[in-house]
Amino acid sequence: MATENTRAAAGAPVLDVEGLQTHFFTRGGVVKAVDGLDLKVGAGEILGLVGESGSGKSITGFSIIGLIDEPGRIVGGKINFMGENLVGASEKRLQQLRGKDIAMIFQDPMMTLNPVLRVDTQMIEAIQAHEKVSTQAARARARDALATVGIPAPDERLTTYPHQLSGGMRQRVAIAIALLNRPKLIIADEPTTALDVTIQAQILYEVQKLCRETGTALIWITHDLAVVSGLADRISVMYAGRVVESGSTANVIQRPGHPYTEGLIHSIPTRETHGSLLAQIPGMTPSLLNLPKGCSFRPRCPRATDACLEVPPVVEVSPGQFSRCWHATVAEPAL
């Protein structure tokens, strides 16, 4: 993990998102996929963005990197990257940033890889698009990147096409491409889901090392609290397009303040729960077309009262730990 000294030396955050609103204008109505989101990540810091499917995690990542297509668009807020607001930035400017200063690792590697180009062609182009280096030097960097993510015989893999690789191998190639130019910010959208645990552990180690040594900021998007508990410096928990809890990993995991966070943590298998039914959060995530009045989590919440019919405020439940809840309270250590 990034050290306290690394963060202190970083100064202003690499990314500072304020009140981000990304809506999709459909025939059925307006889908508020991201609705007033705030988050920050500093140099060398790893932020875990956690939540169930449909909470808006991936759309947050796409919004930051400027990959929202119609009928979706950013309707409010700021995305301050290295002091520059990217909301409303031209496509030319975003192309200059993508792959060099900001990289995204997609859940589906075929969103990154071109099926009709060899791996070496794609990796060399990714380097030469932003730097004036020889093909030989670019190829050497590409080979080293493949070795970093645990691909055996990297020289041979460079000459293959994506369809000749397994799904897990393609994902490792996509991760290697994101690491090529040592970006200032990496957005990783559940990139290790298709990988076995050994390779996953290796990649988690490598991205931690990258952040620590180069000052790269990382947003790790996942539904798996177990992964981010050992990876991230801080955690932001999303529900229905909003961050409902944020704070240091230790505080959020051990002493959650929001009932949704508490429910997620209690649903994780442990040695103590072996052989017994896991706790689960009742109900389903709400439709973003028809969100409940007030607190979006109200229909599923064990603490819900009439006060929850109004939008809850963000309160500080412990130093540096914030929760969006009328009844926020620091729980006893959950793990």
Q: How would you characterize the overall build of this protein?
A:
By secondary structure, the chain is an alpha/beta fold. The chain has a domain at 1-44 and 53-89 and 224-279 and 312-335: 3-Layer(aba) Sandwich (Rossmann fold), CATH 3.40.50.300. Helix content is 30%, strand content 24%. The protein has 11 helices and 12 strands. The protein has helices spanning 4-10, 57-65, 91-97, 119-128, 135-148, 154-158, 167-179, 197-214, 225-229, 249-254, 259-266, and strands at residues 15-26, 29-41, 46-50, 72-81, 84-85, 102-105, 185-189, 217-222, 234-239, 242-248, 314-318, 321-324. It has an 8-stranded mixed beta sheet, sandwiched between helices. It has a 4-stranded antiparallel beta sheet with strand order 2-1-4-5, with helices on one face. Helix 4 packs across helix 5 and helix 5 (135-148) packs across helix 7 (167-179). It is globular, with a radius of gyration of 20 Å. One of its GO terms (cellular component) is plasma membrane. It is a peripheral membrane protein. One of its GO terms (biological process) is peptide transport. It holds the Pfam family ABC_tran.
Explain briefly what this protein structure is:
Helix content is about 30%, strand content about 25%. It has 11 helices and 12 strands.
Total of helices: 11
Give the proportion of residues in helices.
25-40%
Rg over CA atoms, rounded to whole Å, is 20 Å
Mean pLDDT: 88
CATH superfamily of the domain at 1-44 and 53-89 and 224-279 and 312-335: P-loop containing nucleotide triphosphate hydrolases
Strand content: 15-25%
At the fold tier of CATH, the topology name of the domain at 1-44 and 53-89 and 224-279 and 312-335 is Rossmann fold
The N- to C-terminal Cα distance equals 20 Å
SS-based class = alpha/beta
GO molecular function: ATP binding; ATP hydrolysis activity
Family: Belongs to the ABC transporter superfamily.
Domain ABC transporter: 15-265
Organism: Pigmentiphaga aceris
